[in-house]
Amino acid sequence: MRVIAAARLALGELPTALVAAQAALEIDRQLALPEKIARDWMMVGDIHRRAGRATDAKAAYHRAQSVAQAAGLEDIVRLASEAIMEKAP
Fold it and tell me: How high does pLDDT run on average in the chain?
C-alpha cells in the first residue's frame, strides 16, 4: 500500500495517496512493524505537505519521529526532524 501511496503522490492524486498511506499504516500497526509505521507516517506527512496542510504534515512527521525514536531508528529520526524543520512549499 505504501508503494501505491508513493505512486499516487507522484501523480498528484493526493486524496487516493492519503487513503493508501493510511491503509498501509493500519496494516503495519496490526503487524507491529515500527520501521514501516514510521515510514507510513512520513508518507502521510509528505502527502499533507504537498496538499498545503502544513500543520497536519508536521503532526505526521512528529508521529514518525516518536515511533522511530522508540524503535532506535536513527535514520528515520533524522529524516523526520529535517521534515519538521522544512518550510511548507
Answer: 96
- Alpha helix ranges (H) inside 51-88: 54-71, 74-85
pLDDT (0 to 100) of residue 88: 54
- Bin 32: left if φ > 0, else alpha if -120 < ψ < 50, else beta: left
pTM: 0.95
Q: Is the separation of the CB atoms in 37 and 29 below 8 Å? A: yes
Domains of the chain: 2-85 (1.25.40.10)
Dist. CA 37–CA 24, nearest whole Å: 8
Task: Decide: residue 5, CB within 10 A, 0-12 exposed, 13-18 middle, 19+ buried.
Answer: buried
Location of C-alpha cell 503532526: 59
C-alpha distances in Å from residue 28, one per residue of 2, 5, 36: 10, 14, 6
Given a cut of 90, whether residue 36 has pLDDT beyond it is: yes
Is the model's pLDDT at 89 over the cut of 90? no
